[in-house]
Design a protein that fits this description.
Five copies of one chain form a homopentamer. The first copy, chain A, has a four-stranded parallel beta sheet, with helices on both faces. Chain A has helices at 16-27, 44-53, 69-89, 106-130, and strands spanning 2-9, 31-38, 58-65, 93-99. Chain A contains four helices and four strands, in the order βαβαβαβα. In chain A, β3 (58-65), α3 and β4 form a beta-alpha-beta unit. Chain A has one domain (2-138): Rossmann fold (3-Layer(aba) Sandwich), CATH 3.40.50. The first copy, chain A, is of the alpha/beta class. Chains in contact: A-B, A-D, B-C, C-E, D-E. At the A-B interface, α1, β2, α2, α3 and α4 of A face α3, β4 and α4 of B.
Amino acid sequence: MIKIGVVDTTFSRIDMAKYAIEVIEQELPEAVIIRYTVPGIKDIPVAAKKLLDEGCEAVITLGWVGGKQVDKYSYLAMSIGLIMLQILTGKHVIDVTVHEDEADDPEKLLEIARNRARKHAYNLVKLVKYGGTALTQYAGKGLRQGYPDVGPLIEG
Amino acid sequence: MIKIGVVDTTFSRIDMAKYAIEVIEQELPEAVIIRYTVPGIKDIPVAAKKLLDEGCEAVITLGWVGGKQVDKYSYLAMSIGLIMLQILTGKHVIDVTVHEDEADDPEKLLEIARNRARKHAYNLVKLVKYGGTALTQYAGKGLRQGYPDVGPLIEG
Amino acid sequence: MIKIGVVDTTFSRIDMAKYAIEVIEQELPEAVIIRYTVPGIKDIPVAAKKLLDEGCEAVITLGWVGGKQVDKYSYLAMSIGLIMLQILTGKHVIDVTVHEDEADDPEKLLEIARNRARKHAYNLVKLVKYGGTALTQYAGKGLRQGYPDVGPLIEG
Amino acid sequence: MIKIGVVDTTFSRIDMAKYAIEVIEQELPEAVIIRYTVPGIKDIPVAAKKLLDEGCEAVITLGWVGGKQVDKYSYLAMSIGLIMLQILTGKHVIDVTVHEDEADDPEKLLEIARNRARKHAYNLVKLVKYGGTALTQYAGKGLRQGYPDVGPLIEG
Amino acid sequence: MIKIGVVDTTFSRIDMAKYAIEVIEQELPEAVIIRYTVPGIKDIPVAAKKLLDEGCEAVITLGWVGGKQVDKYSYLAMSIGLIMLQILTGKHVIDVTVHEDEADDPEKLLEIARNRARKHAYNLVKLVKYGGTALTQYAGKGLRQGYPDVGPLIEG
């Protein structure tokens, strides 16, 4: 049995976990998904830690960051924390972050969030199922999550 | 017996711990609350560490940050520290921070501080009592602490 | 026997340790003070670490930060280091930092430095002697080090 | 048998690993190269950690950073993570980062990326083969990766 | 036998290690100096770690930082890494950093670099030979490395 963790927040204005979970359930049906919801992004690393301690093979986290400078510092602190957690455990914690100032239009933000959550869930599944060379065919291909892929800078 | 830690500062201009403690005493009456007061935000992580070492199940910290750039760097350092502490211990340290430049009006700042302290105390109690799915019903719901909830970006 | 560490720098333009030591000697006469002087603020964390390894119960550090942006980054790095040290050891390291751009007037800077060093030395002594509730009577009272206390935001 | 790790991303718009691998294969033909491709730069540290755990003697990482401020914070978080990983393992993780805003012209960016990846692969090989004095003949010589060497500031 | 580590970079445009080594050889003739040259500042912490693992009592590092904002973030990451390394080992790693934008004039930069490397090498030797009180006579004296000492703010 494989366990996959999903961490999200009540601060987020979109239920991003829903989209990530749909992908994981479809692509990795044998997985048990354990969800952990916290207030905000600074609480995400400890939730991921708890899920890894419960035996999760990997975790996807879904964070929503405000537009002020202090929000960006909080994002930086969370990012350092998630990276340190991964270094200490050797497990992937794929971070899906949406910045509220990425778009003014709610529909656009929703599209970014949904797309980013789904694509990173696919990334997570591939890494868990096939390991470190699963994405190598896309190395340098300018893939984007939340936006259309931009492609490699110079073809062929 | 469950122990809950409360860390606050003498730098703060509002006794935020009072509001947090009221909520914890009401919602988790069986808990023993251990309080630790430090000078300023950079002293908060070690106080939280000491309370966790004394057996606290979780800690809520109440910090007050000045409006200058160096204050924001101190906030960043504290945030990294609290996140690292949580990663190392696997325990929640819910951080309530009020930035002095969030409002000019003292009454407004008081309202922010009181509301944020109370709501995060509720968050803490729910996580301690019911675990990582206690807040899942609110995932993506745009909850805010210190301000009214903004709600999900797009209903339904 | 209780040991208290004092770390200061040759970069500083004021002998702040002198004021801190005066307070510690007066308020905690049974303490043995161990001093460690380093070149600049980035050397402070390891000096504090060495003093804790020698058995100090707590350490007070006295740093002086220049006015340039890279000096502020050095301040941030030092702050993260001191917080991590405290998390790893569970001991207080009270940080007294004076930023050279806090005032233009040398007399004013001296006043800030002296006041901050003394007040934080008092804080250290209280925490060491009486523990985490020693300062609770001042929680939320708007105490300042280096400047007059600003008091609580709203009285009563 | 010596193992060398290569970490790259699907976010990158240039397949930088190709250039690094060419150099490693040519200069260190006895090495087994283990590649690990991740979505973006914040996933690089854990991939490097996994490769070190698999017995790699050293790792080269190839990251691509966007032009927005939050991208730079992600770069900072990754850099701190890679440095901490190296401190914890005592192994070199040579970081090749290209910032998308280094040039407007795609050809120029390609030139930067290719040059930087190759030169740092040479650096890695030299450090692995000959140790810490392998590059000492170039100390202070103003070598650059991604650009022509600038040379020492003052000759002779 | 005492071992002292010296870490420098090929990115630097001045051979700063030369000046540091001259001082160490003169002031601590019984020391064995172990040098480690890396490409750039982000490689410095692991080199210092390796030298400490080889038994060095202390390390001096000589870094050169470019003038762009991302270079400053790299400086911040390196500084955090060096401080964490010192906390984990309890050994001094004296950091000599020259920022390329400290001066426009090459001669001036050379003067800064040479002076800073020499003075910090003296600091290192004093700390290693005489311990934490070796520099106490200069505490608060406004010493500078790279520039003339500025002296205490207010005499007497």
